[in-house]
Amino acid sequence: MAMLLEDIVRSVELWLNLIKKPQPYVDPSLDPVLLVPGIAGSILKAVDKDSGGKEERVWVRILAADYTCRTKLWSRFDPQTGRSVTLDPKTNIVVPDDRYGLHAIDVLDPDMIIGRDCVYYFHDMIVEMIKWGFQEGKTLFGFGYDFRQSNRLPETLECLAKKLESVYKASGGKKINIISHSMGGLLVKCFMSLHSDIFEKYVKNWIAIAAPFRGKQFYTIYSEGYSDRILEQCSNVVCVIGPTGAPGFVTSTFLNGMSFVEGWEQNFFISKWSMHQLLIECPSIYELMACPHFHWQHVPVLEIWREKKDNDGNSQIILESYPPEESIQVFKDALSSNTVVYDGEDLPLPFNFDILKWADETQNVLSRAKVPPGVKFYNIYGIDLETPHSVCYGSSEATRAVAMEYFSLSSPMFKFLPKYISVNGDGTVPAESAKADGLNAEARVGVPGEHRGILSDHHLFRILKHWLKADSDPFYNPINDYVILPTAFEIERHKENGFQFTSLKEEWEIISEEQDDHDNMVNRKPFVSSICVSQTGDDRSSPAEACATVTVHPHGEGKQHVELNALSVSVDA
């Protein structure tokens, strides 16, 4: 009987071992990574001061999302501190630090089941990096923050400094690889500019992904004393074209509001109008406006279609263009009568020139940033998608029925989806803006992909794995995105009749992401090229000559076989 019980116990133990979840692979040689998200990329919780610190998730959520945004997230900018202060005096907004900061930037609504991928942020990247051998709390960390605030807010930068120190200590004194996405790149750049000593002490590499370094192709110039002439010229407006911040991002944000998700899922999130009122008082939005001093390939302008009467009283539709320094007036006019009702009180929310002043100084901070010695900077930007550069409301065929006498959010033109003039980018940030980091970069690589979707792109993962030294492929070239694999190497030497002969044969396989049509590749003839070099003899060397032939054989599926055959002849000294 005892033997049978032993057999049963052994069977159960064997079964437990079979069903036991395998331990993830951990590579202790890896340097730590800190992930920094962009705007709206962190879970936010509201802490009620009057209920013993009760917490409630306010971003992102489904049930009562719009109501919670209006009551807990709406805020007013304080020019004395540079903070956007929540309207509810009993509420304090915090970012959860569970899972070493990763919880707040992984899945933005952990409770969501259907359509959950629409609220993924760094989720796929975290899963992938764990496969490479990174370990949460040892070599993988996250830094979430209140994205309503300025990217140079002292409180946020102080938290980032503490985070860098804690990651450094938790990883055993190893320097950190920072991976930022979108606006997170501006936050990191502000920190690097204002606290370069701390940055140099703790950071090894900084990899920026899809960062709007020159703004999301919007224009912002702050100046005192806008003239009333602009307001007078804006009468009878029927259409607006504005080079916006990714362009539909900032201009449409100020004029239409915005949604962070598309499709049916947006019906469950905060309304565009509520988000609109929130972002008008957010310094981070104003800091996403483009640097006015940048030399754009196509200078952003604000154009207005409007109805104008000639001396005979006849109406005509004309197009007027406004340079950047005058375009701000349009936003001022559009938001001049904007109000919200909070706790039974009407609160004016115009275009905020105090925030614009603050954002102007942020641009100065960003422009002074330099990569410290010993730190390497890499820039990855999205390409191959149409990215709004200018936004157009209405058209030149607009009739007098839709003409208006002044700009306001109630104007008919703001009730319709705008039309866009696009440039190359990731659908949100133009490639021209993302590439213009103004820093000494080790590499800048364009990756086809959408602004947020690029964080799940395997092409991106391949590059990151190489730069983080989490792979064992020394032949991968992230710039050109191909792998060169040596497949054969032969060398022979012999002497004959006073000459030394050396023959060499080497072969490589080139594997690229680009895959041409297989039939076309197979039918292509090999490409052959040759080269000869020679040297005349002198007192220190003998005459010699070498010739080589390179043959490239197309194989399809992104593969090419390369052969090198070389022969050198020299006088045997």
UniProtKB/TrEMBL annotation:
This is Lecithin-cholesterol acyltransferase-like 4. It holds the Pfam family LCAT. One of its GO terms (biological process) is lipid metabolic process. InterPro entries: LACT/PDAT_acylTrfase. It comes from Populus tomentosa (Chinese white poplar). One of its GO terms (molecular function) is O-acyltransferase activity.
